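User: I'm curious whether this sequence folds into something compact or stays loose and floppy. Could you predict its structure so I can see for myself?
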Amino acid sequence: PKIDTIIKVANYFSIEIGAILTRELTVNELLKFKTDITALTNDIANEKFTEVPCITEMNASDYLVNHDKENFVDQMPKLTLPIKNTSAARGYTINNLEMTSHDKGLFPKDIAVGHEYPVNKVKDLINGTLVLVLTSNKLILRRVYTTKEQIVLRADHINIDDIELNTKDIVEIWKIKYVFYKRIPDVNDELEQRLLLLSNELNAIKKKIE
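Assistant: Here's the prediction. I'll summarize afterward.
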């Protein structure tokens, strides 16, 4: 082996370079070598991604009834994602075109992933934030806009009517953090992305002033 490889091995396992080159290693040294290799392998094997329960077309109606039952949530299909998550999360399989506009946006079979958000703080959300809302009888993936009186859930599609709710109508809110597309999205429209970012920043400033 190359000398730099020998040096790395010697340093990692605390064995003198001369010992590796000039003599046979003792049983204890070999056992230590084997133990360290096993420990390193276990560290790699024990690395785990986050598992996120996913709401699909098949289990969505059951979720309306059993969303607060731990056994049901444990049995939901899981998304295994390379994210670090310290709060509860949900995946949601999109099944309509409500969040599309001019052939862009979220299409059926795309998956949105959100973190749990306190219902009593819904009016703290920046207008335009994408959320998944659970009411007593439906799941709604839309952008949230709040007024002093009501909470408005708005689709990106211009032909879809707004849904108006009161805080008491909301059972769960999941603030969308990630979206996984079934297809490769068009990422070339940088101007549109910047305008959306600017709009969100202006909404945040406006909310602070109010």
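Summary: The helical segments are 3-12, 17-22, 27-45, 60-66, 70-75, 190-209. Residues 3-45 form one domain.
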